[in-house]
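Figure 2 data, in text form.
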Amino acid sequence: MRIKQLEIIGFKSFVDRTVIQFDHDMLGIVGPNGCGKSNIVDALRWCIGEQSAKHLRGKSMTDVIFAGSASRGPLGMAEVTITFDNSDPEGAQQLPLEYRDYAEIAVTRRLYRDGTSEYLVNKTQVRLKDITDLFLGTGVGTKAYSIIEQGKVGLIVSARPEDRRLFIEEAAGITKYKHRRKQTEQKMEQTRQNLARISDIIAEIERNMASLKRQAQKAERYRSYRTELDRLLLHEASHRFLELTVLLQVERAALAELAEGSESAITELATREAELEVARQQAYGFEEQAEKAQSESYAASTLVKTLEAEIAQARERLTSVLARERQAETEQRDLSEQVSAVAQEREALERQLEQTDASERGEMEAIVMAQERLDELRAQEQVAQKKLGELRARGAQTQARLASAEARLTAASRRRIELQGRREKLVLEADTLRGERDEIEARRGDLTAQVGELLEQKREALELRTSLEAGLKTDREQLVVADKELEVARNEQMQKKNRLRALEEVQKRLEGVGVGARHLVNTRDPAVLGLVADFLEAPRELTQALAGLLGERLQEVVVQDAARGVALLQGLAENKKGRAALLPLVPSPAELPPAPAGPGILGVLRERLRFAPEHEALVRSLVGNAVLIERAQVALDLPERSVPMVTLEGTVVHPDGRLVGGAAD
């Protein structure tokens, strides 16, 4: 066999499912220290049956399960699967017979945190012994040479000859034969011990034979004494019967006299009952009148309660309307205050604009005065021009004053332009402030709505997270429960399979069947059709009832005809193969008594059985009209019984009074 694939889940550092393909004859795994290279070798060693936690570099076997990390929680199970290529016919011949025909062999080992361990071969649960037997002689194993770690070569070279012989025998392929030889020797030793115990038992039985012979003689004497006692009791019972017959005649005469007296008493009783019936009719009339009056009283009480409830509802509605009216008045006052504040703000802005206009008008008047002054100066200049010659001395002064006036005029013009720009800027700023205020108010409303939506989304997210965490916790718990239920179901399935194989083996060997019946069935005679149990099938709940009713008749042998049955019985007698009861497939027809009915009787048992239509006559002769009952007391309470009655637990009450029951042998 050659390793084809390695699958690791939850083993040491391999928390997720990891698959390693061995698709080359030589494969190397490299990586830094601590990356898990040695864990792969540990996984191989663990999967093929290693039982020492020390060899796996751990303190206990549960250390191989992933224990968790900062970001991952611990796992509850570790699983490793090794897939071997079994396509080589020569190599397949070395394997056990049940695995030779498989092209691939998958060996799986699981370990749960509670210590439960599983071994599987091709997804079928097996024992650790089966895993060991599979690898015997192949060089694979916990003590074989297939895994050579650091220091193993030196250990092999320096090992004792006895230890080195193990590796040589494994390489030669004789380990499995030595293992089988050891198992065979152990079985032979157990057989010798069993034979010794059987010899002791035979000796003990031989010592008890003399005592048993004396007991048998005592039993024979007891039977003779018992016969004599029965004869004497029968004689006494006959005399007692004659006495009881005479007493019966006397009692019958007295009974006739009492019957005559009872007729007169019955007549008087009928008269009294008629009078009592009349009184009952009157009482019924009075009760009807009382019930009618009580009904009217209940209706009036219901009407009063309904009206009181309507009045209470009207009062509640009135209180609610008054509260809403007071709330509306409060809101109206708040709105009035807000309107007054807005009006005051508007008046302040208008006063500011008026002050700006007044300042502008003052500056305009100054400019006009300066203009008039300029005109006057120009007139004086014209006069001065005429008198230029005379006023040369005063010219420089006049020129200076003219320059000063022009400068003031220029400054006034520039001041006027600045004031106009400032006014326009103030108007624009006022409009901008109004727009920004409106935008801020609108944005404030939007932000308030967004904050509300975000808070609602946050609350919903928290609720969703809480529900998801709770759901995740529930899902994890359900997963753990489902894993446990799956494990229980697998164990139950394995137990049921083992029990089915055991039952099939028992049926094949006919264990529990008499020696004679077993011999007839094993002869394979065409006239022998099988046991009675092979012709009937009962539901699970009726198995004990059918077994209790038929008992040893289930071991009777069904034959084709009675003549051949006689010949078969003669053969048993001649060969001394025991005794057997035979039943023809078509028995003689007989009229069946009717099945009773009543409380506690569940029905006819034959109607609930499953059988072939051609076997109905056989089933009628076996089961008849036997009925199912809830308990045995139901049959005992019946005055007479014409058919057998059986409970679900298998207790049978026969028509003659016999009771058969108890636990199965």
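Caption note: The mean pLDDT is 77.
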